[in-house]
Amino acid sequence: MIIWTAWRGDIAFKKPLQLKRGSVAVRSLLFIRSEQQGSICWHEVAPLPGWSQETLMQAEAFLLANQQRCLTELAALPGIPASVSSALWLAQLPEGIGPVRSNQLLLSGESIAGEPSDVVKVKVGVQPLLQEIERLKTLLVTLRPGQRIRLDANQSWSYTDLAQLTQALGDSAAIDYIEEPLLPGLGYSDWQRICPYGYALDESLHSGLPQYHPGLKALVIKPTLLGKAKTLSCLSFTAQHQTGLTVSSSFESPLGLSHLKRLARQWAPNGYHGLNTEAYLQTQLQTGPEQALRPVTQLLHWQPLW
């Protein structure tokens, strides 16, 4: 029989993180500790404020309401929060072996010169288009041979914008793909006719699987936000249509990141993923005997749910 308990813990960001609903200085998480025949497993429940469909309090209420159920029964309940379903599933995946490569996020004002990663992610769609184009021109000429950039537009551009971007940058093989380029409501059926670069989908996956169109290069999946069922559907989609897969984090702790890396090793071992967010948090994986008591270090707050 599996015995489980749940805890709430807070971890400080090294510097406040800007999210949809303002600045956040502390990452609040839930941790499930399961034990079977002396073997202990930690699961991390990490809804992200402003992005997840459920709040941390709603995930906590779900666990409290079902604390008498076994974990297998809990995982099969209808209406299980996405962050809980992914937490119970990911921790059970085979750990796998080998490193997981990540793209490096280039922040505003940072130079790409000397950046060791072969794939660099650049946030765009924030400044006026002409300013974005000039910045991208500068970045492209400073890339070393074989280095690529991924543009994350967060649904900011129209097809007119893309035509202007393409005219200015040309058919650059150094642009790996543009993530969520189009404004909400615009479809991708005309993509390949207008834009030579591939595109990737991320936040639109929350509404369901996309229709496949030529030019779709990858799905960027955040299992913590999508939950187990939607993540599995996305994985099947990438296999069916032979698209790439990028596993991306939602500012989980090192424990949650270690579980996401299991998925990346299993489904896209040669890809570049968005799993380098560990540097944002003031914590590390716990080691030694203490690991049975707390999964990570430097917790600001640690309290059992019951």
TrEMBL record:
The keyword NAD does not apply. Keywords: Lyase, Magnesium, Metal-binding. Residues 103-198 form the Mandelate racemase/muconate lactonizing enzyme C-terminal domain. One of its GO terms (molecular function) is lyase activity. It comes from the Bacteria. Coiled coil: none annotated. Pfam families: MenC_N (PF21508), MR_MLE_C (PF13378). SUPFAM superfamilies: Enolase C-terminal domain-like, Enolase N-terminal domain-like. PANTHER family: O-SUCCINYLBENZOATE SYNTHASE (PTHR48073:SF2), O-SUCCINYLBENZOATE SYNTHASE-RELATED (PTHR48073). This is O-succinylbenzoate synthase. It comes from Reinekea marinisedimentorum.
